[in-house]
Specification:
The protein is built from 14 helices and eleven strands. It is an alpha/beta fold and about 375 residues long. The longest helix is centred in the middle third of the chain and has 20 residues.
Length: about 375
């Protein structure tokens, strides 16, 4: 194993014989070879990444794997949300089979949430299940999508509707990789950090209000925020691995956000984290309209997300948006829908989110009409 770094942090996800660590360090990619050699002695390693990450991070990873004497092959896919689709899933599985990777070998997902979800799903179904390792290179992936075992692709009917639960063997979150992110991507990832405070940890949200500048600047608060977000997600995943109960809380803002992503064609018009930011504001505003959440809390959430440069209103989305009925059609395809009834993550205030079943569709439609 690599020599411990004094700045590194490790979060353990205790899932019995499927337990794994999340290692947060500035040089996790360079040290990946040593971690992986200890994790899976004798294994071969497939790497799936996208064209943007390949330029910035694949040479670092390849050098680390070569330095540890590990056999590896790489597949580079187009960047963007459109890659989370059937054609690229097939290409990913074919890459594994054509290179004769076995069940005992390991697939590495090197990239953001799109690559992590896609590669993880490919690992879940190739040869009926291969081991895989997440090396998330975006802030959003480091604090959310790389942890918890959700994998999948999008459908014309909606986001993340096709997939499987398949836990990684290890997550290596490289802090240095974040320095190469465009600011818009970093902001989008920050929305997912704020989410953990808004779910059930008001103290964390208030800490973010005071420390967000240092997080964006790359100071010690950045690693602290990532570790705290990962710990929060790990705790929820251990309690409800396959989202039969409280894990649905992690979807705060996502019901509205996913509908908006579908409305914008899963394109750069609206990044996932941007959709979540708007969705979290809408969830608080809708809760306030229902008399559940103090209006000043909804305003405080909007003000903080605005202060870091995130969009918080439907008007902030470039281009025209469809009518409320079209957004409602997308919401009706949400994964939390149960026997045709709508389930939302609503809130009684900052850090007081809860699962509300049987939400009145007419109330949601009227709310969206007003917001539009």
């Amino acid at each position: 194993m690599p020599t411990p770094d004094s700045t590194a942090r490790t979060v353990h996800v205790p899932l019995g014989d499927r337990a794994y660590d999340i290692v947060i360090a500035p040089d996790a990619i360079e040290k990946a070879g040593a971690f992986l050699k200890a994790l899976s002695p004798g294994a071969r390693f497939g790497v799936i990444t996208d064209e943007h990450v390949a330029k910035a991070q694949l040479p670092r990873l390849a050098a680390g794997l070569d330095g540890s004497g590990l056999d590896h092959e790489s597949l580079v896919l187009p960047a963007g949300e459109a890659t989370k689709s059937w054609p690229y899933l097939q290409q990913s599985v074919d890459f594994l089979l054509e290179n004769r990777f076995e069940r005992g070998d390991v697939l590495i997902a090197l990239g953001g949430g799109v690559i992590g979800d896609l590669a993880g799903f490919a690992a879940a179904i190739a040869r009926r299940g291969m081991d895989f390792v997440q090396i998330p290179t975006s802030l959003l992936a480091q604090v959310d999508s790389s942890v918890g075992g959700k994998t999948g692709i999008n459908s014309a009917h909606g986001k993340n509707l096709i997939g499987a639960f398949h836990q990684p063997k290890l997550v290596l979150a490289d802090l240095a990789a974040l320095d190469t992110l465009p600011e818009r991507q970093f902001r989008a990832g920050y929305a997912e950090i704020a989410k953990y405070g808004l779910i059930d940890d008001a103290e964390f949200f208030f800490w973010l209000e005071a420390n967000h500048r240092e997080i964006f600047a790359g100071g010690p608060a950045r690693a602290q925020a990532i570790a705290r977000a990962c710990s929060a997600k790990a705790r929820v995943v251990v309690e409800d691995e396959t989202e039969r109960g409280n894990r649905a809380l992690l979807n705060l803002g996502h019901t509205f956000g996913h509908a908006l992503e579908k409305a914008t064609g899963f394109s750069d018009r609206l990044l996932h984290g941007e959709g979540v930011a708007i969705g979290m504001v809408l969830a608080h505003q809708f809760s306030a309209r229902l008399g559940l959440c103090p209006s000043q809390d909804a305003g405080r959430v909007e003000a903080h997300l605005q202060s870091v440069g995130l969009p918080t209103t439907l008007a902030a989305i470039p281009g025209d948006l469809p009518a409320a009925d079209t957004l409602m059609d997308a919401i009706a395809q949400d994964k939390k829908v149960s026997r045709g009834t709508l389930t939302f993550i609503l809130t009684r205030g900052i850090g007081q989110s809860y699962i509300e079943k049987n939400v009145d569709p007419a109330a949601v439609r009227t709310f969206l009409e007003d917001m539009l």
